[in-house]
Amino acid sequence: MASGTELTPTSYIDHHLTYLTTQVSEGSFWVLHVDTLITSIILGVISFGFIWLIVRKATPGVPSKSQAFVELAVEFIDNEVKNTFHGNRHVLVAPLALTVFIWVLMMNAMDILPIDIMAWVTENVFGLHNWKIVPTTDVNTTFAMALSIWFLMIFFNLKVKGFGGWMHELFCTPFGKNPLLWILNLLFNFIEYVSKPLSHSLRLFGNIYAGEIIFLLLGMWAATGVSGTIFGSILGAGWAIFHILIVTLQAFIFMMLTVVYISMAHESH
Amino acid sequence: MNINFTLISQAIAFSVFIWFTVKFVWPPLLRAIEERQKTIADGLAAGERGRHELELASQRSSDVLREAKQRASEIILQAEKRATEIVEEAKRTAKEEGDRIITGAKADISHEVFSAKEALRQHAAQLAIAGAEKILRREVDAKAHADILIAIEEDLK
């Protein structure tokens, strides 16, 4: 609903896919997507603040309903981590998995909010013409998380195996110790290390972005007439219900991959 | 799809949230959960121990009961034996006492008989003397025949 300009399908989609940007410094890299950053931070503060408020009063006795809810989520994640990661998970991995799951889930869940109503609210209540409400449809968000986890992976490789051990693993696995295979092993591992953050981030980004586009197309269909509105609404509702699954599943997959990558960094081949 | 400064800012935000969870969210909740697990485990162990103790106690009580029954029957047996003994002893004592009384009575009787005989004999002697006196009074001088009379009297005694 780009106000003031002629509403065409292209301008409609363009409007919904345009970030609220600000130039931090010279150069094309130094652009900041204010909407992505602010939304994700607000969501993080709300969810982790909520959990913190409950956890602060956590009692080992009979838990309150809200504490039981948080414990349910935490124990679910703790169980998943326990099955994958064999070390002291409470130091970093389990809380990291909790952070990833909750944050990604919240950011993905923004996708279910009706896109045009949210656009109307940001435009008319906050006076912001462009505001992308779903942070995970921004590849910067998913890349930022995947790369942070990638660096953690490198860090744990170095910490657990030492530089020599890591180099040994890079050159001697998975094919063997033979010096003839060193280049092949290194190439293989290089591809693996490059593909890990790419698949990690693009899987989440792709799923949520595609979901967003489907919503936009359905919204566009709704603008074509009465029958389009009816079908668009029905299909939009269906897609939203289906999207609840995608939102949760993608958050879960992102968390599991995080745990798996970091466990792999802890274990020698 | 353009990578820009948002990447860095999001990474910073992500790190802050990770730090927050690691530092403030995870430990207290984990502590609460672990403490509760310990409480539950302790409770279950206590329950198991209680059950075991109950089993032992019931076993012990049945043992005690059996022993008590056995002892009671022993006591009854002894009491019956003792009762028979007492009865037997009483019978024997009674018989002895009876015998003793009978013997005493017999002795008394024979003594009575003897003294009655004596008295009778004396009476008879006196009668005989009195008779003889009456007879002899005419013919016998009491003084002259006193020695004879005394001798007779002695004989009759």
Descriptive tags:
heterodimer; A: 269 residues; mainly alpha; two-stranded antiparallel ribbon; 2 strands; 72% helix; globular; B: 157 residues; 93% helix; rod-shaped
In summary, what is this structure?
Chain A: It is a multi-pass membrane protein. Chain A is mainly α.
Secondary structure elements and pairings:
The complex is a heterodimer of chains A (269) and B (157).
Chain A: H1 9-16, E1 21-23, E2 31-33, H2 34-56, H3 65-84, H4 93-109, H5 115-124, H6 139-172, H7 182-222, H8 226-266
Antiparallel strand pairs in A: 1-2
Chain B: H1 5-139, H2 146-156
What can you see in these coordinates?
Chain A is mostly helical and 269 residues long. Chain A contains 8 helices and 2 strands; from the N terminus they run αββααααααα. Chain A has helices at residues 9-16, 34-56, 65-84, 93-109, 115-124, 139-172, 182-222, 226-266, and strands at 21-23, 31-33. Chain A has a two-stranded antiparallel sheet with strand order 1-2. Chain A is globular. Chain B has 157 residues and is mostly helical. Chain B contains 2 helices and no strands. The model of chain B has no long low-confidence stretch (mean pLDDT 89).
Class per helix and strand makeup of chain B: mainly alpha
Q: State the end-to-end CA separation of chain A.
A: 54 Å
Q: Please give the largest β-sheet of chain A.
A: 2 strands, antiparallel
Adjacency order of strands in the biggest sheet of chain A: 1-2
Task: Name the helicity range of chain A.
Answer: over 70%
Tell me the strand percentage band of chain B: under 5%
Tally of extended strands of chain A?
2
- What is the domain total for the residues of chain B? 1
Oligomer: heterodimer
Mass-distribution shape of chain B: rod-shaped
The Rg value of chain A, from CA coordinates, equals: 22 Å
